[in-house]
Structure formats: structure tokens, C-alpha cells
């Protein structure tokens, strides 16, 4: 589920996304992010996200 994915991403990848299911059942399978941070912080977050996906799903 999107909730399980986001929980693993937080615990293992140290990146916080919000599961789409938090916004209703049609949100399942999606995630939401906040991008009101500096470019440097966003780059680090997406580098961590990429590493998490590569390690666990590729």
C-alpha cells in the first residue's frame, strides 16, 4: 500500500512522503511531497529516494 511504502521510505531512506491514501481511497498508489524547501535539500531528498528505490525495487 502507499502507506506501507511511505513508512518504509521514512524508516529506511530517511525521506518523508505522504501516502495518497491519507487523502481518500482514490489516492491509494500515489504519494504526495512538499517541495517548499531549498534546492539543496530537495536534491538530497530525491537522491535518498532514488537510492531507496534502486536498493529495494530494481
Any key phrases for this structure?
mainly alpha; 7% strand; 58 residues; Aspartate Aminotransferase, domain 1
Provide structural commentary.
- The protein is mainly α and 58 residues long.
- It has a single domain, classed as Alpha-Beta Complex (Aspartate Aminotransferase, domain 1), CATH 3.90.1150.
- It has 2 helices and 2 strands, in the order αββα.
- A two-stranded antiparallel ribbon has the order 1-2.
- The relative contact order is 0.20.
State the gist of this model.
With 58 residues, this protein is mainly α. 53% of the residues lie in helices and 7% in strands. The model has no long low-confidence stretch (mean pLDDT 96).
| Largest pleated sheet | 2 strands, antiparallel
CATH class, please? Alpha Beta
Low-confidence stretches: none
Give the CATH superfamily.
Aspartate Aminotransferase, domain 1
Q: What's the mean pLDDT score? A: 96
Strand content: 5-15%
The helix/strand series, from N terminus to C terminus, equals HEEH
| Secondary structure tally, helices | 2
> How many structurally independent domains?
1
Beta-strand segment tally: 2
Q: Give the overall shape, derived from the CA principal axes.
A: globular
Helix content: 40-55%
CATH topology: Aspartate Aminotransferase, domain 1
Gyration radius from CA atoms, angstroms: 12 Å
Quaternary organisation of the protein chains: single chain
Give the distance, in angstroms, between the N- and C-terminal Cα atoms: 18 Å
Q: Which structural class do the helices and strands define?
A: mainly alpha
CATH architecture: Alpha-Beta Complex
Amino acid at each position: 500500500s502507499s502507506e506501507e511504502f511511505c513508512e518504509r521510505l521514512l524508516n529506511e531512506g530517511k525521506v518523508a512522503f505522504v501516502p495518497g491514501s491519507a487523502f481518500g481511497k482514490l489516492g491509494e498508489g500515489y504519494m504526495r511531497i512538499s517541495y517548499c524547501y531549498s534546492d539543496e535539500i530537495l536534491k538530497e531528498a530525491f537522491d535518498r529516494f532514488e537510492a531507496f528505490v534502486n536498493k529495494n525495487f530494481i
